[in-house]
Amino acid sequence: MCRLSVARGSAKVLPIQVADSVIGRWFRLEGSGHPREREGSRFMTDVRAGITTWAAMAYIISVNASIVSDSGGTCVCNGPNNCQTDETYLSCVQEVKQDLITSTAAISALASVLMGALANLPVGMAPGMGLNAYFTYSVVGYHGSGFITYREALAAVFLEGWVFFILSLLGLRQWLARIMPQSLVLAVGAGIGLYISFIGLTSGGLNVIGGNVTNLVGLGGCNPSDWVSTDLPYYCGTQVLRDPTVWLGIFTGGFLTVLLMMFRVKGSLLIGIFLTSIISWPRNTPVTYFPHTTSGEQMFAFFKQVVAWHPLQHIGNALDYNYGKGKVWYALITFLYVDILDTTGTLYSMAKFAGLRDPVTLDFENSTIAYCVDAVSISMGALVGTSPVTAFIESATGIAEGGKTGITAVVTGLLFFVSVFFAPIFASIPSWATGSALVIVGSLMIRNVRDINWDYIGDALPAFLTILFIPLSYNIAYGVIVGVCSYIIINGSVWIIRKASNERFSPPNYDASEPWVIPPGGIIPGWV
Fold first, then answer.
1. Are 169 and 367 spatial neighbours (Cβ–Cβ below 8 Å)?
2. Can you give the pTM of this predicted structure?
3. Which DSSP letter does residue 366 get?
């Protein structure tokens, strides 16, 4: 009883001592005496919130590595049609995936700690979903079949980060995010949700959608022995949905995860991914991730280490600064604008959720610092071989747990740092374990469609085309271009007709259109 009383007493005294320390005053904990201390913030509450945020975000370690490694990284195969059968190339790609486990966890740790320590925001950072898929499948291409190389794409990301940094210092980043029609902004987020869901259903995940030789898409899930011999070997004939890993991913990684989420079990995505992986780890089973092949033996040997430091062998400082190539700038501009919409929207929504957004200026504390941290993290991520880093919407789980200060993000970052040393475990998570997670995350992102202005076709059709073209063209940039161009043509024509007729000819429901103006002044300064 005495020991229990002492423990309880210590639990009550520690938060008070921390609040009254340098740490408490820096993070503005309640009771710190800081003139702008955050009401309701507690040290232990923020620590618990940081653990919760990490549990909600940790899936990105394996998912990002799985997606980006599909580009082939710096590996080279003997011809684009031989990549699936070149054992040397496949072995190299597996090492790239292991590298990406390390780089994803490391850059997530660095970015989250910087966001918490410098901007004092309870927001976790990691390579962003959607952008990593665009980086892999649209820019670099599956097994390097895209319009620029992996090294050139990293250089585009690196320069994008510094462009971001300059725009953030000038305050132009917020302005660029607000100049785009709101329905199109919402449509881009929803389209990216469909995009990553489609990847989760195809060869990047469950392989349940594999197409066939006559249609663009169709049911997949056949066994490797039933693959049709084409440039895309995951095309199936008639023996669809025979691969047991497909059903394992659907039921264990999918339905079970959804049930856990419905009952608000923390870390549901991570639980589903790891449970599916654990079932896939034993050898000599129909769903094993470690077949008796050269690459399978290599993966199993690495997996058995459990805890190990895996240095970057292929992707560290692998940039090719080929800025004289026009397509590098095309990729850079797309990364730039999509990241502006993604990160700015996420930071604003998380600040509002945490009660840190000013109701008058609509800005939040330390916004300029937050944007600069994000920008620097993007460039640092390119140096370790990964796609653009961004703020994660999963931070809402930690905020809902009571996180109000940067301590939450710092704890999240420290847990990502610990994850670096468990690379053998994260590298051994199969694609069918992460496929359902991609579909679930996509379903969460598409909720933006509720707020699109469907009442006026001048807003609705461009938004719909954006949502449609992003997954079907397998390219975020094409979806944005189609949406913006259709918006300008449709609404520009209406504007000309109204002006020419002195507003006598207007669409009957023109009053239902979404107002659009160029933001005055262009700059909302952040509170530094």
1. no
2. 0.77
3. T
User: In angstroms, what CA-CA distances link 243 with 225, 233, 246, 433?
Assistant: 10, 15, 6, 14
SS3 of 321-344: the string is CCCCCHHHHHHHHHHHHHHHHHHH
Whether the Cβ atoms of residue 222 and residue 239 lie closer than 8 Å to each other: yes
The pLDDT score that the predictor gives to residue 99 is: 93
Q: C-alpha angle with apex 425: 309 to 247, nearest 5 degrees?
A: 160
Q: How confident is the prediction for the chain on average, in pLDDT?
A: 83
Residue 236, beta-bridge partner list: 227
Asked whether 467 and 194 are in contact (CB, 8 A), the reply is yes
Residue 100's alpha-carbon distances to 280, 351, 384, in angstroms, are: 21, 30, 8
For residue 277, give the DSSP letter.
H
Identity of the residue numbered 53 = T
What is the distance between the alpha carbons of residues 198 and 204, in angstroms, rounded to a whole number?
Answer: 9
User: What's the one-letter identity of residue 397?
Assistant: T
Q: Regarding beta strands 389-391 and 125-127, do their DSSP bridges make them parallel or antiparallel, or are they unpaired?
A: antiparallel
Buried b (16+ CB within 10 A) or exposed e, 394-405: bbbbbbebbbbb
Token pair 């980006």 is at which residue?
68
| Amino acid, res. 157 | V
> For position 280, what pLDDT does the model report?
93
> Distance (Å, rounded) from C-alpha 394 to C-alpha 171?
26
Crossing angle (nearest 10°) for helices 150-170 and 172-179: 100
Question: In terms of pLDDT, which residue wins out, 258 or 90?
Answer: 258
**What is the Cα–Cα distance from 15 to 27, expressed in whole angstroms?**
13
Question: In angstroms, rounded to a whole number, what is the distance separating the alpha carbons of residues 49 and 353?
Answer: 14
| Segment (H or E) for 175 | helix 172-179
What pLDDT, on the 0 to 100 scale, is given for residue 525?
A: 43
Say what the alpha-carbon torsion angle 449, 453, 455, 458 is, to the nearest 10 degrees. Answer: -110
Per-residue pLDDT averaged across 303-312, rounded? Answer: 88
pLDDT above 80: residue 433: yes
**Which residue shows structure tokens 């690459």?**
295
